[in-house]
Amino acid sequence: MQKLANDRVMVLASEDGRTLRIVDLVRGTVWEQDGRSLFAESTSDRATKRESLRPCGAKAAGAHGIEIDYETDNARARLSLSLRDDGVVARMPLPEQGHVTSLTLPGSFVPVSEPRKYLLPIMQGMLWDGRGEAFELDLHEAWHMGFSMPMFGCMGSSGALLTVAETADDLTWWLGKDREGRSWCTPWHRSSLGAVRYERAVCLYPTDAGIVAVAKRYRRLVRDAGRFLGWEEKIEARPSLERLFGALMCFIGYCRDDVDYAAACRKLKSAGFERALVYPARFNVYHPGFAMGGLPPIDVSEEQIRQICGLGYDIAPWTWLNEGLDREDIRSAFRKEPTGRALPHWEIDGQQWYLCCSSTLPAAYRKSLGGAASGMTWDHFDVITCATVGECYAADHPGHAGHAEPRTEDRAHLRKLLHSAQFSVPGGKAISSESFNDAYSRECDIMSVKAWPQYGAWLFWPVPLTMLVYHDSIIHSWWEQHSYNNHQRGRINAPFYQYGGGRARTQAALDALTGSPPDVFPFGTNYAYDAGEGSKTYAYRMRLEDPEVQFALATALPVAQLHRRIGKQEMVHFDFLSEDGYVQESAFADGTHIVANFANCARAASPALDAIHSESWAEAR
Ligand SMILES: [Zn+2]
């Protein structure tokens, strides 16, 4: 038996490497590696093969390490283990033999003789207790339904185990359940430029059982890594961010409309909204000559922008530079596949956009500041944090001259882009983008996409994991198509949960529970997709006087007022108050205590509240 131990954690490996355990010496929980979760992929003769990794022995590596070697018919891999004060570091050095393109070490660890639940970083966070039929999910970074943070938790009854990928640029989380009822979740280290290419590292930290404990351990890691910027620190550097607190997220549609935007904003102000984040006012793109739902992009006049800012509101363009239409002047910036082919991406109504290499974006953004982005007080970047990072094989891009660009380098350009945008106007400006993705935790102030709070028979239960980590640093808002009153993009069915807009009461209750700003589409024109017609679009419009808009605004106002008060506070507590999950409570560092009922009937809530109505929230005193 090989053994590593300090006063908090112990690692035990059998000599044959088949049994690997992490023992939590504080809580007594024993975590065992699931050998069936170990795989490697390798290529030979251009075919990729996935094979089980077989352990072939564990040995001591100096006084403070254990090494376990693995093999498949075509490849070899090594797991190198060492200790931190309260955790275990698992390193996967570069495989010596075989063309290994991906591997799942150190695999899934599950508690011995205890039930388990998984805390998953999907959207705002999901809790899965292992129910359901057999399935497999491979979570990529962002992309709405992928992972929002490079971590997950497995929770037993006596303790939990937080797994964090220290190398997360070429990573997926692979989770599932087989027909025998065995469940797993493991890192899957993916290829970088066609190979494993660099050493991968994962850390495992035993914590107390519970969502809050796992989230707070991860939060400390983010802080220790210098990737956490609190609101006070942000506001000191960019005073304009003070206006985020108490604001209405105010989407006004992608398409041109004849509505008087400034007059409509004045009415919002009269209705009690002291602050608003209005977007998009214009399209900040390479070539504006395209149509959405048959209409050109919105283009609010300079005078109207001036008047809207004069109300104390903030206004943003739709900065969409990560891809462009196929035009001579930007073709050289297109991201390239190994074959040299440009990558088609967004498409509507027969118009095709191509991905641009991230190395070209900081300069393209600087150039745009004097154009469509001028006069704006915050900036929204379309899908930069959601679907942009990638590899580029163009041989002639000055940003990575002479070599193909891996995702890690590509991301550095994106961080530079967003960081420079923060300071592109006096007083600084807020930066937002799509999908919550904490690879950009220092660069973004608002990130988006949340699931509907639905519990009971739903397999994945949304929980405020991102906000337990980041509430005092980043706003987690709704996808722009999912305002309280916007049902046009309908209900999106994800595996085991749903997301969408148009459910004002439920969405407001979730925003109150998590101290987030409300989100309404009060006026303007937008496009949606014709059912069953692929990328064919149609336009629809909202007006302030619409009863759905008025209802959404009335629902939103108290949420905005709450956000003004608690938006900068750390979220310190979350719990379910009912067995079926529908009644929940949260608390913030200033003592604010919120109870929400997401059920469609009234419920007794807590000793602090007699009852709360269906789909509503209340502050407990
Ligand atoms: Zn490139």
Q: What do you see in this structure?
A:
The chain is an alpha+beta fold. 17% of the residues lie in helices and 33% in strands. The chain has a 10-stranded antiparallel β-sheet. It has a 6-stranded parallel β-sheet with strand order 23-25-29-30-31-33. Helix 3 runs parallel beside helix 4, helix 5 runs parallel beside helix 7 (407-422) and helix 9 (504-513) packs parallel to helix 10. The longest helix is centred in the last third of the chain and has 20 residues, at 547-566. It is globular. The model has no long low-confidence stretch (mean pLDDT 96). Zinc ion is lined by residues 335, 357, 359, 392, 394, 397, 400, 405.
Please give the alpha-carbon distance between the first and last residues: 55 Å
Specify the biggest β-sheet: 10 strands, antiparallel
> Helicity level, as a percent range?
10-25%
Radius of gyration: 25 Å
Mean pLDDT: 96
What's a concise summary of this model?
Helix content is 17%, strand content 33%. It is an alpha+beta fold and 621 residues long. The strands form eleven sheets. Strands 7-8-9-10-20-17-16-13-14-32 form a ten-stranded antiparallel beta sheet. It has a six-stranded parallel beta sheet with strand order 23-25-29-30-31-33. A five-stranded antiparallel beta sheet has the order 1-2-3-4-12, with no helix packed on it.
Describe the protein's topology:
Layout: E1 2-5, E2 9-13, E3 20-24, E4 30-34, E5 39-44, E6 47-52, E7 54-60, E8 66-71, E9 76-84, E10 87-92, E11 100-103, E12 108-111, E13 117-120, E14 126-128, E15 135-139, E16 151-155, E17 160-165, E18 171-177, E19 183-189, E20 200-207, H1 211-224, H2 231-237, E21 247-251, H3 261-270, E22 275-279, E23 283-284, H4 302-310, E24 314-315, E25 318-319, E26 323-325, E27 344-348, E28 351-355, H5 361-368, E29 378-381, H6 384-387, H7 407-422, E30 430-433, E31 446-447, E32 460-462, H8 465-470, E33 475-476, E34 491-494, E35 497-500, H9 504-513, E36 519-520, E37 524-529, E38 537-542, H10 547-566, E39 571-576, E40 583-588, E41 593-597, E42 603-606, E43 609-612, E44 616-620
Parallel strand pairs: 21-22, 21-36, 22-24, 23-25, 25-29, 29-30, 30-31, 31-33
Antiparallel strand pairs: 1-2, 2-3, 3-4, 4-12, 5-6, 5-11, 7-8, 8-9, 9-10, 10-20, 13-14, 13-16, 14-32, 15-18, 16-17, 17-20, 18-19, 26-28, 27-28, 34-35, 37-38, 39-40, 40-41, 41-44, 42-43
Helix pairs in contact: 3-4, 5-7, 9-10
The structure holds zinc ion.
The site of zinc ion has 8 residues, from loops.
